[in-house]
Amino acid sequence: MSDHRPNDVWSQASKQVAASLGITFNNGELELSKGSITKSFGGWLGITESILPTIVFIFVYQLTSNVWLSVILSGGLSLLALVRQLIVKSALTQAIVGVISIGITIWLTLRDNNASDFFLQGLITNSAYLLVALVSLAIRWPLVGLLVGFLIGEGFTWRQKPSHFKRFMLATGIYCGMYVLRLVVEVPMYLAQNLSALGAAKLILGIPLYAVTLWTMWLVVKPLIRRET
Q1: Predicted model pTM
Q2: Are 177 and 221 found together in one domain?
């Protein structure tokens, strides 16, 4: 495909999907940069809002050993961040999902009064994403190929191009690797109830690892996008 016109190919839906991944549409081409990745997290304020609840939970729990106080303060910060995002972005669906996520985290933590369960939802979510990506590789419909094909308006034609198919398989494998690394590191810490180490691992393997993974995947698929545009 040689011509990408924003009015027909670059639909509003694809813009939203791309923006959530830090991908922008610039002069007819997909672009990824340090600034666009940061923006996808809501800027530095959004990044701060995403990591602060974990820091507060660990700090308060280490100081007081009170699971209820720790999770309520952490959950309260998360809810405040969602309210701000709702006001600024009017992202109702995202806010609803966020509230449900916070509610599940609070419930999991308080059900047995176990501080380590504060991180359980993240482990479950990572496992679910990993499973979906692995299934896409197993059936040879790599997740990254489906996404990029949608973004550039190529549909499924990439499956008939061996070089495209291999790169999308590799990029999806890299995506899987991110979740494997998180689980390999964090699950033993969770089972050992090593709260401090688990909190540190969650922060390091969260946004920083995601950004590195996203950039690496971009380097793999970028030649295909540029060739098609």
Answers
A1: 0.85
A2: yes
